[in-house]
């Protein structure tokens, strides 16, 4: 029901936007918000979806841990500082919800089927500092590329827990650094700018906290575990 509500919400926004912005893609559009991009600082907000994964490297060759991804939800704000006519510095803090299931196939150490499954529920506070490189505006359309660094605080990391996988507790580090790359497009309507974008997020450091037992069937063979994610955001200025 929550996913259906979010989908209907976006459909209603896009439908209203389309009704107000028929001239964006016309042959000779009326130029909307012509002086908006001349502002030194401006603000906005975004809503969107995410798909988180793990990139796992192993010490020895064994059956891969299977990561089942789900679609999560993003919400945040945007502060944009104009550095150059085509370059902006953006700070985009946001709250991200996601869930991943880790399945350990064909492991003889597990006596119960529940041992082969670990649910990784995550609530992230995401702090990206991004450079936005815009192309020349054509009518009411302006494509752009994004790149930058971010830090993520995982409120559900269990990093301070003394329990580990023996007790059913999967642990990761609270803070992780990332780099981000993406593409988007600014669509100028009469009253606001609508900017859909897609972005890849790549964790830099290993974020797994190992179990106390160095031969743990859950963490013992993992060399590193790093976040990989795709964000689809809809930004409004």
UniProtKB/TrEMBL annotation:
What sequence ranges are listed for the domain Outer membrane protein beta-barrel? 37-207
Q: Which domain of life is it from?
A: Bacteria
Q: Which InterPro entries match?
A: Beta-barrel_OMP_2, OMP/PagP_B-barrel
Q: What is this protein called?
A: Outer membrane protein beta-barrel domain-containing protein
The taxonomic lineage of its organism, from the top, reads:
Bacteria, Pseudomonadati, Bacteroidota, Flavobacteriia, Flavobacteriales
């Amino acid at each position: 029901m929550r996913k259906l509500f979010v989908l209907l919400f976006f459909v209603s926004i896009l439908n209203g936007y389309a009704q107000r912005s028929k001239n964006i893609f016309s042959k000779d559009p009326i130029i909307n918000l012509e002086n908006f991009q001349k502002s030194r600082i401006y603000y906005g907000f975004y809503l969107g979806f995410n798909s988180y994964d793990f990139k796992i490297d192993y010490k020895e060759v064994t059956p891969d841990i299977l990561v089942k991804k789900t679609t999560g939800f993003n919400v945040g704000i945007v502060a944009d500082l104009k550095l150059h006519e085509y370059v902006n510095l953006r700070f985009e803090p946001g709250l991200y919800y996601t869930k991943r299931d880790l399945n350990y196939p064909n492991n003889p150490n597990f006596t119960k089927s529940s041992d082969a499954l670990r649910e990784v529920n995550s609530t992230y506070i995401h702090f990206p500092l991004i450079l936005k490189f815009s192309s020349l505006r054509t009518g009411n359309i302006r494509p752009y590329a994004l790149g930058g660094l971010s830090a993520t605080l995982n409120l559900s990391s269990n990093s301070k827990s003394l329990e580990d996988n023996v007790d059913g507790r999967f642990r990761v580090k609270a803070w992780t650094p990332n780099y981000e790359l993406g593409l988007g497009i600014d669509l100028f309507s009469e009253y606001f700018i609508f900017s859909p974008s897609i972005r890849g997020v790549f964790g830099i450091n290993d974020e797994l906290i190992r179990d106390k037992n160095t031969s743990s069937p859950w963490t013992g063979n993992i060399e590193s575990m790093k976040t990989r994610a795709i964000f689809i955001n809809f930004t409004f200025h």
